Amino acid sequence: MSVRSQSRLALAALSALALSAVQPSSAADQPDPAADARAFRNYFTNKFPNVKLEDFVNGPYALNEDMRRQWEEKEQFPPYEFSLETGKELFAKPFKSGKTYADCFPHQGIGIRQNYPYFDEKEGKVITLELALNRCREANGETPISYTGEDMAALTAYMAFTSRGKPFDIKIPDDRRALQAYQNGKRYFYARRGQLNFSCATCHVQNPGQRMRAEVLAPALGILNALPIYRSEWGGMGTVSRRFTTCNSQIRGVPLEPQAEEYRDLEYYLSYVSNGLPVSGPGARP
Amino acid sequence: MTSMNSKAHMRISLYLPVALLVMGGTVPVSAAGSETEFRAAYAAAEAAENEAGRLRNRWTVTEAALAEAKKAADKGDFDQAIASAREAEALAKASIFQATSEKDAWKNLEIR
Fold first, then answer.
1. Residue of B nearest to A44 (CA)
2. Are β-strands A283-285 and A229-231 bridged in parallel, bridged antiparallel, or unpaired?
3. Average pLDDT, stretch B28-54?
């Protein structure tokens, strides 16, 4: 091939590349949360045809018979019971203002876990239950509590317990920013990070039911419905924030600050694709 | 004898400056040179890690290597400090590459 014809070929290739780059993005690139949720659910129900849909909220216990038997026995004296009691007390304890957490939430905060996180159109951001609890404290002159600490776990455990069995009902309003938050959460879920080059999906989409050292990995479908959780590995309770940050450090990534926008969007995405599955928190995991 | 002396003198006059130059280059200036080299290596690593931070994709191992570099430098072990700083820079650059390539590559894992 002559130099001239090589240059022509290269030019043609470049032009084709440039053309493809300016073509409008296809419909497939546009976020379609409802289609995503259907595909997400189908993926797991096809992968585990013997698991009932509502059972996915029980994580590894839905996939492993031996673990399930042990868990059912443990549930007679669940390890999150003390936290639940603490959460109930904290929830009812008045702030300096005389108000309580109940005054900050619809239905006095009872039976509402399934509606969190939600997209606040006024603020243009995702509001999680943990964030709402701390905002409630601040609005009443109290200092915020740690997002990864025992008190936050106790409060969310109590609120989840009052909502048990209610199907997740996360809404994406007709707002470009809400759709963007959803899409950002989806990207965070699938993007690889950390020195181990893992994404959330590496464990919870590609390998649920498989062992990672001593752990049996939970499916992503319904994974947040069981939170907060008591983990034997932690020797205590853990919030959604604790779960996200420890997942990041386990793959040798520096966790973001708890309740960073990325984590809030991730929670929004993961909760939305689990819509219809019941709240089962607080949960217990090995 | 005289000629031998002059030969020896010539050798000395030839080799001594070279020997001094080599010694000077490796012994007393060496420590200062190492510290300078460490500072440059650390600054490069820190700059890369800051970029990884801007991309919200820092790695724990990079942070550990940076801390190790600083610790070694505080002890005056500049060889170790430089090695750790260079390791940190390589790790930080890998995390930047990861963050950049994942801007699109995440779609390959998506359930559709």
1. B111
2. parallel
3. 86
